[in-house]
Design goal:
CATH topology of the largest domain: TIM Barrel
Helix content: 25-40%
Bound molecules: beta-L-fucopyranose
Number of strands: 20
Distance between the termini: 25 Å
Largest sheet: 8 strands, parallel
Radius of gyration: 24 Å
């Protein structure tokens, strides 16, 4: 099979080498972001007074006496989640209700004064270490209990707690800041001093990612695990970027978990980047819950709402393929129940989900690889990670047999370049795809059986640099 053009001579009609386009590919991940990018999938654990009150949002008036998990076992959390292939846990050290699950010197409204009486973050930190999991912290800026909320003093309070969390629990891989900003106990709203919060984290935990309302990872814009057709990691950053995240995030307890605002479907195509002064590397993260809420609720709670408690394993697996395989990372929430354990109801789904993922990636399909010019000449790249030259049109794979899954990754050390590609099997068009980025997963449930599979790059911001391609049976 021959192609009419090399990718760069046609390039979907888009200009290739003007200074504006070159500017986009000079935006690249920091060391911290590169390291984080290796973690494709990790978990949230939502746990706190809401777990015992049967609520999604507490109002800050909860009695500490309610917090009495009888079998809390953070080792169990780590064991179960690690078995699903997860690499880390982000824990709700404080949710909007203001109850702190760690031993803080700055409020009495904390776990040490509850019947449980032990620092849950400390226990989890120990378990994470033991099981080789990374620990992340969710600390809600919105606080419905703390009296100083709505004044400058609250920013000091928040910074003090961040400092405690940064300095007493070992390495933290991520601080996750929620966008919600409601009223505090006296009806006041807070002006968050983000710069100060970030400064504390950078000082004490320089490797930690600051996610969601932070500069390192961006919220994907919904809580349903949906990705855009093209998720870009190079995005424009303006003064109101953080406000707009807060503005769009969940507005009430009845959580917009299924909502997906497609009005911002395109946030960073060439057209959107054009002329924008401040471009940053900020990849997408999809936060989604195994349940239709974030905290553990019993079956009756869901019955009243005519919802099933859990997403199905198949739904979760599709979310995995679309997010991890759609240039985003997957942050899957698995709450702990009233006993302080991951409940059998969720364990069952997790087990089935894990099986689907493991089966998908169980067996590699070997293949030979070459790069093809429009004249049909082939050459084999000398290294695993390779750059396509100007006179090369397609990547040709010769698989040893039928495969069901194709994984392709750009070498994002050199930014995100590929804007679209098409797949051909023995010369026949199979599908058109948009960007690649850190990872694109293509699935062929019935299997693709072809001697030659060509990945034709149809538009790119510069010479594509491919880190890896893997096929699975
Ligand atoms: C939202 C919160 O309001 C939810 O309760 C949950 O913590 C979710 C991850 O973020 O904005």
């Amino acid at each position: 099979m021959k192609y009419r053009h090399a990718w760069c001579t046609d390039n979907g009609g888009a200009p290739l080498s003007n200074d504006e386009i070159k500017r986009y590919i000079t935006v690249r991940p920091s060391e911290r972001q590169l390291k984080f990018n290796e973690m494709k999938y990790y978990n949230f654990i939502h746990f706190g007074v809401n777990t015992f009150m049967g609520r999604e949002w507490g109002d800050g008036t909860e009695d500490l006496k309610v917090f009495r998990p009888s079998q809390l076992d953070t080792d169990q959390w780590c064991r179960i989640l690690k078995n699903t292939g997860s690499e880390g846990i982000i824990f709700t050290a404080k949710h909007h209700d203001g109850f702190c699950l760690f031993d803080t010197a700055y409020t009495d409204h904390n776990v040490m004064n509850s019947p449980y009486g032990k620092d849950v973050v400390k226990e989890l930190a120990k378990s994470c270490k033991k099981h080789g999991m990374k620990l992340g912290i969710y600390l809600s800026p919105w606080d419905r209990h703390e009296k100083t909320y709505g004044s400058d003093e609250y920013n000091d309070y928040f910074v003090n707690q961040l400092t405690e969390l940064c300095t007493s629990y070992g390495d933290i891989f991520c601080f996750w800041f929620d966008g919600a900003c409601g009223e505090g106990p006296d009806g006041r709203k807070q002006k968050y001093d983000w710069d100060r919060y970030y400064e504390v984290i950078r000082k004490h935990q320089p490797d930690a990612i600051i996610a969601n309302c932070g500069p390192d990872v961006r919220w994907i814009g919904n809580e349903a695990g949906k990705t855009r057709k093209s998720e870009w990691s190079v995005i424009p950053w303006t003064d109101d970027t953080l406000d707009s995240i807060a503005e769009k995030s969940q507005k009430n307890e009845a959580h917009g978990i299924e909502c997906f605002d497609r009005t911002d479907e395109d946030i960073a195509s060439r057209e959107k980047l054009q002329g924008k002064a401040n471009l940053v590397w900020c990849p997408a993260e999809a936060d989604v819950s195994i349940n239709y809420g974030w905290f553990w609720q019993n079956d009756d709670y869901y019955k009243e709402r005519s919802q099933s408690p859990c997403r199905t394993a198949k739904e979760l697996a599709d979310i995995y393929f679309n997010t991890v395989g759609g240039n985003a990372s997957l942050l899957l929430n698995v709450p702990a129940d009233k006993n302080g354990l991951i409940n059998p109801r969720e364990r069952k789904v997790l087990k089935e989900f894990t099986k689907i993922i493991e089966d998908t990636f169980r067996e590699n399909m070997p293949y030979d690889l070459s790069l093809v010019s429009p004249e049909g000449e082939e050459c084999v790249p000398g290294t695993d990670s390779f750059m396509m030259q100007n006179d090369e049109a397609a990547i040709r794979l010769r698989p040893n047999g039928k495969f069901r899954t194709l994984v392709i990754e750009e070498d994002i050390r050199y930014s995100q370049r590929v804007e679209s590609f098409s797949l051909f099997a023995d010369g026949k068009h199979v599908k058109d795809c948009t960007c690649i980025g850190a990872c694109r997963i293509l699935r062929f449930p019935k299997g693709l059986d072809a001697d030659e599979v060509d990945i034709l790059i149809t538009q790119s911001r510069s010479n594509p640099i491919i880190k890896s391609i893997r096929l699975y049976k």
